[in-house]
Amino acid sequence: MFVDNVKITVRSGKGGDGAVAFRHEKYVPLGGPSGGDGGRGGDIILKANEGMNTLMDFRYKRIFKAQPGQNGQIKSMYGHKADPVYIVVPTGTSVYDVDTGKLVGDLTENNQELVVAKGGNGGRGNIHFASSKNQAPEIAENGEPGQEKHIKLELKLIADVGLVGFPSVGKSTLLSVATSAKPKIAAYHFTTLSPNLGMVKLDNGQDFVIADLPGLIEGASNGVGLGIQFLRHVERTRVLLHLVDMDPNNGREPYEDYLAIRKELGNYDKNVLKRPEIIVPTKLDIPGSEERLAEFKEKLATDVDIFPISSIQHTGVKDLMNHTSEVLSKAEPIHFDVQSNDSQEYNFEPKAKQFTIEKDAEHSFVVKGQKVETLLQRTNLDHQDGIMRFARQLKSMGIEDALINAGAESGDSVTILDFTFEFI
Q1: At the N or C end, where does the chain have fewer CB atoms within 10 A?
Q2: pLDDT tens for residues 206-244?
Q3: Number of compact structural domains in the chain
Q4: Which residues are annotated binding-site positions for GTP?
């Protein structure tokens, strides 16, 4: 099954906690702190693999977790950092943040990596907090929490050449003749329900990848038919082979079909219309198709490449593939870099408040804010020294004064995340 759009959840590892420990060794009379640092948590990393062409694996596993870092040890031993978790995706995968909708990155090269969730830093052990005033500190930091993100993976197949056209114009048949691919072929519309890839190998040693995209119809760029699901794959192709049916008995007008497909491509992405295009009239083995081809050529511009073929009789296919290879050699490469605005206008904005204070109930207050919440998570509250250090940090941030201004009195309860303490 071909899957090109999935949403997954990734959770990086928490950093290891720093240790509170002291030396208790013979012949070391002064002892001293010896708590080591915690190890870094594991990252979540996406890695591109050109051997994949579907996101099918993610239909069965949607949550990926990394291990936490090891806690610090006695004798100043640091904890081991956790190994990263690699998630293999096909080349051509675009990564979006579900919450913001922003493009995080684009994996377009084999073995390219993208860190989507960074592991938390390890906490410092008490060896870092010794001073002349406090030579035996019982202070250590907890590890930094890992990140949890919801991301969307959107596959856009990377192919040199894309086959476009209305349903049943012969795209799958051409792919089966020009390559070793074996797509499903039948005499009804929408036989092709997912893109098919094939490798064209020429006698001169050159080769290129060709993609058969499911048939577009009028209105595809607005969600009609199957086209909107697969139009994104056209973005990656460097050359378009536009197949037009010359069967005089199909009840359609070739020139109108040609203009309709061009319109849908332009509505989706105007840059696609700038790519080199080769018009491929098909089904030239049917009686009356030659006359229809002559009428079609009269309505087209004279400088357009036209290569009529009959895939059933293999007529013109070899010449078409050789010409496509020549056009490819002259076509400009497509750049997939994430666009960034290098020239940004700077506007001064007052610094946002680092925290907020809400009165939850009578004699009860709640303090919220990313910085103060992170500070709590990284504080080891199992030791009195750690609690006193946390209190000093709250005071230096101005939270103590802000609570007083909000009406807090001694004995009131103050809550930060799931930690509640008495305000004095």
Answers
A1: N
A2: 888 888 877 565 554 454 445 556 677 777 788 989 989
A3: 3
A4: 165-172, 190-194, 212-215, 282-285, 310-312
- The rounded distance, in Å, linking the Cα atoms of 424 and 414 is 10
CATH of the domain at 167: 3.40.50.300
Tens digit of each residue's pLDDT (9 = 90 or more) over 159-210: 788 888 888 788 778 888 887 656 444 444 444 456 777 788 888 888 888 8
Distance CA 73, CA 404 (A): 40
Q: Tell me how far apart the alpha carbons of residues 81 and 118 are, in angstroms, rounded to a whole number.
A: 12
| 307 Rama sector, left if φ>0, alpha if ψ -120 to 50, beta otherwise | beta
Arithmetic mean of pLDDT over the chain: 83
Per the domain annotation, does 346 fall within a domain? no
Give the residue numbers of the binding site for Mg(2+): 172, 192
Domain that includes residue 414, residue range = 356-423
The answer on 212 and 131 residing in a single domain is: no
Which residues sit in the known binding site?
165-172, 190-194, 212-215, 282-285, 310-312
Is 150 in the same domain as 198? no
One-letter amino acid of 329: S
